[in-house]
Amino acid sequence: MALDADVIVIGAGLAGLVATAELAEAGRKVILLDQEPAASLGGQAHWSFGGLFLVDSPEQRRMRIKDSRELAWQDWLGTAGFDRPEDRWPRAWAEAYVDFAAGEKRAWLHRQGVRFFPVVGWAERGGLLASGPGNSVPRFHITWGTGPGLVEPFARRVRAAVARGLVEPRFRHRVTGLAATGGTLDTVRGELLEPSRVRRGEASSRAVTGEFELRAQAVLVASGGIGGNHELVRAAWPERLGRPPEKLLSGVPAHVDGLMQQAAGAAGGHLINGDRMWHYTEGIENWDPVWARHGIRILPGPSSLWLDARGRRLPVPLFPGFDTLGTLEHIMRSGYEHTWFVLTQKIIEKEFALSGSEQNPDLTGRRIGQVLGRALPGAPGPVEAFKKHGADFVVADRLADLVAGMNTRTGEALIEEAGLRREIEARDREMANPFAKDLQVTAIHGARRYLGDRLVRTAAPHRLLDPKAGPLIAVRLNILTRKSLGGLETDLSGRVLRADGSVLDGLYAAGEVAGFGGGGVHGYRSLEGTFLGGCLFSGRTAGRAAAAATA
Predict the structure, then answer these.
(1) Angle at 496 between CA 495 and CA 499, to 5 degrees
(2) Quick one: which of 63, 325, 333, 501 has the most CB atoms within 10 Å?
(3) Which alpha helices (DSSP H) does 394-529 contain, by range?
(4) Are 258 and 265 in contact (CB under 8 A)?
């Protein structure tokens, strides 16, 4: 039987684009399939903030951050918590990725035109021991142009390969099955979906107009995770994180449905670590949604008071920006699914950033003047828009009115003004000195010692009940789906493995469908900035390996 291409790549997100670009550069003919219209080229990465994990970068050194490969690897191991026999390949991928992040990653991206915002962010600060989870130093490098700026170099390479006749994109092709000939996976079957003109991220029609079957020497799956499929999220939800939430916001479009992961599993690919997942606790309902249940994550600085549904402070070290999954576990065992930030106008102006390329038009549009304006008084426009229109925001001059608004939002009188006032006043008394026993206040002072936080991410310490810092603001926070941390088990070439550890000849996987490498490169937790980086690294690795195998 004749072959239709050298390699078929399934999924036109970041990992798929990187793999396709590498295959075409090696002279391979590629068919690139995606179930969505061409408008969604780049997948989830387009919507991202563009954060990348780099180690000992020029940006870090200019900010007087001392980082090293050894410190990064210590942080990765403390965060991942690898403890299963099937963590063999994920751990090997993790070490290879840290080497990449500390080595050629930045130079490789720089050669393709990728540039970075000069202030390095400090995500997932941990807050426990040195050997525990979290980043010891700031490592979150924001791509100049955010997600679209990171996607563009690889989309450009793919478009150039299309012009040379090496790549054939086929959108509205939904893969439903994979098959092998003579023990080598070489056949892709699926359905043709009717044409769609929906905007990027909007739900597209699933009306079937026909079927297709294609053959190639190799197939590379880069179809993403399960975050848009809440049924699969709840089915995979681990007991260690408490009960699955009844209400979930979607941090990804509906087409992130996990169906291709299941198809690869049915073809013999070994799926591991499905109970490991990464969802955010600071989700707010998008007042101007693109997809159903569209949520946006707040990227918080360290100063907001984090309260449970009854108005009690979350325990140490569950401060804003410190320990995502630790906070998620605490919330889901509290009996309620929402929490609250209580803060001031002074804090929201300095500390609130919103995840997503569309929520950061200055960085996404590379508008230097607007970016510099972040250091001036006033919150960014998108943040102010949420404060004005968002269903989760309450604004008041007096604490009594704030509490009344919070209880109105939930429909239950869960928060008592007297109890919340005691919490706030106790915290406010700690602000009179540059030292304190309140570890969140200590963390605020510590953050201010880092130049990047002092410039753009941490407000000057002040009392929450100081009228000069007002008005008071409360933000209801919801659980927001985002990433699958498990997936198809792969070796260090991106080859998919069977349950017995043997190679499933002809099948490769990259990106979230492969747990960003090996079937779970992050272990139980992420250090942030590592999802896009995992797509880059695994897509490059699998693309190069598939090119070598089809020479």
Answers:
(1) 140
(2) 325
(3) 399-410, 417-429, 439-448, 451-456
(4) no
> pTM above the 0.85 mark?
yes
**Beta carbons of 477 and 274 less than 8 angstroms apart:** no
What is the rounded (10 degree) CA torsion for 122, 464, 330, 352?
Answer: -40
- Rounded to whole angstroms, what are the CA distances from 207 to 70, 173, 196, 211? 52, 12, 10, 12
C-alpha angle 327/329/334, rounded to 5°?
95
Residues in a beta bridge with 284: 296
* Per-residue pLDDT at 421: 98
Q: What distances in angstroms separate CA 13 from CA 70, 95, 486, one per listed residue? A: 31, 24, 18
Helices vs. strands in the chain: H and E counts, helices first: 18, 20
The long-range contacts involving 155-161, CB below 8 angstroms and separated by at least 24 positions, are 155/17, 155/41, 155/42, 157/17, 157/21, 157/24, 157/25, 157/112, 158/17, 158/20, 158/21, 158/24, 158/32, 161/20, 161/21, 161/24, 161/25, 161/30
How many CB atoms are located within 10 Å of the residue 244 CB? 17
Q: Which pLDDT tens digit goes with each residue over 118-137? A: 999 999 999 999 999 999 99
CA distance 83 to 248: 29
Residues in contact with 215: Cβ distance below 8 Å, sequence separation at least 6, in sequence order: 1, 2, 3, 4, 181, 186, 187, 188
Q: Cis before residue 238, ω within 30 degrees of 0?
A: no
Cα 531 to Cα 522: distance, rounded to the nearest angstrom: 9
> pLDDT by residue (tens digit) across 140-164?
999 999 999 999 999 999 999 999 9
Q: Measured between alpha carbons, how far is 402 from 399 in angstroms, rounded to an integer?
A: 5
Measured at the CA of 385, the angle between CA 141 and CA 363, to 5 degrees, comes to 25
Q: Which residues contact 182 (CB under 8 A, 6 or more apart)?
A: none
Q: What is residue 156's predicted lDDT score, i.e. its pLDDT?
A: 98
Residue 470 to residues 304, 339, 417, 523, Cα–Cα distance (Å): 13, 21, 18, 41
